[in-house]
């Protein structure tokens, strides 16, 4: 059972890593790992469950190949792939005063 999971790169290969606390970062750094990104899990999980959880996080957008590889290894590829996207920012639409008045029925009226 693990309470921390994430990814780390060593010698150009990124893999999913598991730990029981965030001090694992120090050990990975000491051993030459880079791009270390670990997160605390909502509760203690086994490896397969932790990998499935990673697919619901923002890490999946950056490290999908490594997470999918771990999913195949620990879950036999049975877990559902999830795409994590950021919410779209609302766009501002510029409307002229004339158009706004026309939209509410107060625009220019012509007399025939």
Describe this structure in words.
The chain is α+β, with helices and mostly antiparallel strands and 112 residues long. It is built from four helices and three strands, in the order ββαβααα. It has a domain at 2-75. Helices cover 35% and strands 25% of the residues. A hairpin with a 2-residue loop joins β1 (2-10) and β2. α2 (47-54) runs antiparallel to α3. The protein starts with a strand and ends in a 9-residue tail after the last helix. The mean pLDDT is 83.
Question: What tags apply to this protein structure?
Answer:
112 residues; alpha+beta; 3-stranded antiparallel β-sheet; elongated
What's this entry about, in short?
By secondary structure, this protein is α+β, with helices and mostly antiparallel strands. The chain has helices at residues 24-30, 47-54, 59-75, 97-103, and strands at 2-10, 13-19, 34-45.
| Continuous helix count | 4
Structural class: alpha+beta
Helical fraction: 25-40%
What's the arrangement of strands in the largest beta sheet? 2-1-3
According to DSSP, the number of beta strands is 3
Order of helices and strands: EEHEHHH
**Distance N to C terminus:** 82 Å
- Could you report the average pLDDT, rounded to the nearest whole number? 83
What fraction of residues sit in β-strands?
Answer: 25-35%
Q: Which residue ranges are poorly predicted, with pLDDT under 50 across at least 5 consecutive positions?
A: none
Shape: elongated
**Biggest sheet overview:** 3 strands, antiparallel
Query: What oligomeric arrangement do these chains adopt?
Result: single chain
**What is the rounded Rg?**
25 Å
């Amino acid at each position: 059972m693990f309470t921390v999971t994430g990814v780390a790169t060593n010698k150009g290969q990124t893999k999913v890593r598991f730990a029981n606390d965030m001090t694992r970062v120090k050990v990975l750094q000491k051993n030459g790992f880079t791009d270390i990104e670990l997160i605390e899990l909502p509760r203690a999980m086994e490896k397969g469950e932790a990998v499935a959880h990673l697919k619901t996080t923002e890490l999946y957008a950056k490290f999908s190949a490594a997470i999918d590889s771990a999913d195949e290894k620990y879950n036999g590829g049975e877990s559902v792939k999830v795409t994590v996207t950021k919410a779209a920012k609302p766009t501002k639409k510029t409307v002229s005063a004339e158009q706004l008045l026309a939209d509410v029925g107060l625009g220019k009226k012509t007399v025939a």
